[in-house]
Design a protein that fits this description.
- This protein is mostly helical.
């Protein structure tokens, strides 16, 4: 899922992260796929935090990060 998200245009990424429920769903899928691929403790902690209801807020922060740096926070 992470690779699919990265292949999307910047506009599609921003739109996916802008819509609240879609934001959380995409965030959970991308974060868990990244955590499973990289396998570090920090990646797992972030994936768990995103899975909680606070994931919507983290998703909006990721939207801003994506606008500025063209990738999600700690997902490079």
């Amino acid at each position: 899922m992470e690779k699919w998200f990265e292949r999307q245009s910047r506009l599609v990424q921003i739109l996916l992260l802008l819509i609240p429920v879609v934001n959380w769903f995409v965030e959970v899928l991308v974060r868990w796929s990244h955590a499973l691929r990289k396998g570090s403790l920090l990646k797992y902690i972030i994936a768990i935090l995103v899975t909680l209801p606070s994931g919507i807020i983290i998703g909006w922060l990721d939207m801003l990060w994506c606008l500025l740096f063209k990738h999600l926070i700690l997902c490079d």
